[in-house]
Amino acid sequence: MQLFLPADIAQNYKSGAQRIRVMTEYWVDQSVFCPNCGSDLRQFENNSPVADFYCEKCYEEYELKSKKGAVGKKIVDGAYGTMIQRLISANNPNFFFLSYDKNSLEIRNFLTIPKYFFVPGIIERREALRATARRAGWIGCNIIMSNIPEFGKIYYIQNGIEVSKHKILDRWSKTEFVKTTHDIDAKGWILDVLLCVEKIGKEEFTLDEVYAFEGYLKTKHPNNYNIKPKIRQQLQFLRDKGLIEFVGRGRYRLKRG
After folding, report:
1. What whole-number distance in Å separates Cα of residue 107 and Cα of residue 235?
2. Nearest 5°: CA angle at 48, between 45 and 54?
3. Per the structure, how many domains does the chain have?
4. Boundary of a domain, candidates 175, 200, 234
5. Which of 7, 120, 181, 242 has a Cα-to-Cα distance from 174 of 20 to 30 A?
6. In this structure, are strands 74-79 and 140-144 parallel, antiparallel, or unpaired?
7. What is the pLDDT of residue 11?
8. Could you tell me if 102 and 201 lie in one domain?
9. In this predicted structure, what is the pLDDT of residue 147?
């Protein structure tokens, strides 16, 4: 896999944004396979309203977001209302995120996040544009990357190092149990508790350490008044799905994929 953006194909474009768009889309078209089935991807015609790439074999669709420097905690996206509607509809693409070095055009990180990891809790509503703006009143949004569990971030390139195709396909397949959870609130609980487990930062952790996130989870789910029982329920679910294992006496172990 080529680890640099192809500058030569964008020489005829004057706008920096256009050059980056052309280079990144070309690179994905030439280099990236579908993480769901391993087949080649195809690029949609320009200005597709939903996605940038699709797989001819399994029909998964992907939207590409690019950013210079680090991926960071937030990714700027489009209209807030449109994004929320997409999250609760069937017409929601998976995402590719690409970060690159501005000077060398080296690709530092390239990852995919399956669409079923996108729940309203990871979308931040931006302030409406001022009355003096060309699109006065328009409300955009940010994707809060730090609210997505690391389990759902599947890297092709991480910190400049390529990941094997076998590992990418394996990582994707292990996330698919999230897709079968159709209720968006239930899905939010699964992802939020998994995120809390990851934030503990240890391979082995205790139930009390997860309970320490009770206040955080209450802010995410204000209509639930039984946070601790819900935590135990989600830990049981994650254990059944093979993400964690019960060690004994209120202790668990996070499995690393």
Report:
1. 36
2. 70
3. 2
4. 175
5. 120
6. antiparallel
7. 87
8. no
9. 93
Domain that holds residue 223: 184-254
Q: Do the bridges between strand 94-100 and strand 61-68 make them parallel or antiparallel, or are there none, so unpaired?
A: parallel
- 123 and 201 share one domain: no
Closest-CA residue to 120 (of 88, 97, 94, 145): 88
Question: Which residue stretches of the chain are H helix?
Answer: 16-31, 80-87, 165-174, 184-200, 207-211, 214-220, 227-240
Low-confidence ranges of the chain (pLDDT < 50): none
pTM: 0.91
pLDDT per residue as tens digits for the range 23-33: 999 999 999 99
212 contacts 201 by C-beta, under 8 angstroms: no
> Do 245 and 128 belong to one domain?
no
Which CATH number goes with the domain that contains 191?
Answer: 1.10.10.10
In this structure, are 194 and 166 located in the same domain?
A: no
Q: Are 124 and 72 in contact (CB under 8 A)?
A: no
Is residue 251 within 8 Å of 235, Cβ to Cβ?
A: no
d(CA 153, CA 3): 19
Amino acid identity, position 187: K
